[in-house]
Amino acid sequence: MIDDYAFGRITIEGRVYTKDVLLLPGEEVHSPWWRREGHSLDPADLEALLEDPPETLVIGTGFYGNMDVPEKTLKALRDKGVEPRVARTTQAVEELNRLMRTSARIAAALHLTC
C-alpha cells in the first residue's frame, strides 16, 4: 500500500522513495525506475513487469500529468492481458490503494515529479 505521495516523494510501507517507482505484484519496489525517454512510457520500460504480467497496471503520469503513455504501450499491455489504468500520480495512488484491497495481481508504474 502507498502510505503517502507528494510531488517528488512517495512512501510505500513506511519507506520513502524520491525517484520514480515500478511496483510489482507482491509489493516488490524497483526504484529508481528509469525510462528510455524521460517523459514517455515505452513498452521496453516495463520488461520486468511483463515477465509475469499483473491483472492491472496503474500508471501515474506525474503530479501534473506530463508523462506520455503512447497507444503502442497501452496495446502492448493489453496484448499481455494487462488492463492499464492511466491517471495523474495523485489519482493513480488512490486507485492503486483501492485496487490492492481487492486483488494481489496489481502493479504500478509511477512518475513522481512533473
Summarize the structure.
Pfam families: DUF498 (PF04430). The protein is of the alpha/beta class and about 110 residues long. About 20% of the residues lie in helices and about 30% in strands.
Describe the protein.
This protein is α/β, with parallel strands linked by helices and 114 residues long. The chain has a single domain, classed as Hypothetical Protein Mth938, Chain: A (3-Layer(aba) Sandwich), CATH 3.40.1230. Helix content is 22%, strand content 30%. It has three helices and eight strands. A five-stranded mixed β-sheet has the order 5-4-8-6-7. Strands 1-2-3 form a three-stranded antiparallel β-sheet, with helices on one face. The radius of gyration is 12 Å and the shape is globular.
Fold topology:
Layout: E1 2-6, E2 9-12, E3 15-17, E4 21-24, E5 28-30, H1 47-50, E6 56-60, H2 71-79, E7 83-87, H3 89-100, E8 106-110
Parallel strand pairs: 6-7, 6-8
Antiparallel strand pairs: 1-2, 2-3, 4-5, 4-8
Please give the domain count: 1
Percentage of residues assigned to helices: 10-25%
Poorly predicted runs of 5 or more residues: none
Gross morphology: globular
Sum up the structure in keywords:
22% helix, alpha/beta, 3 helices, NDUFAF3/AAMDC, 114 residues, Hypothetical Protein Mth938, Chain: A, 8 strands, five-stranded mixed beta sheet, three-stranded antiparallel beta sheet
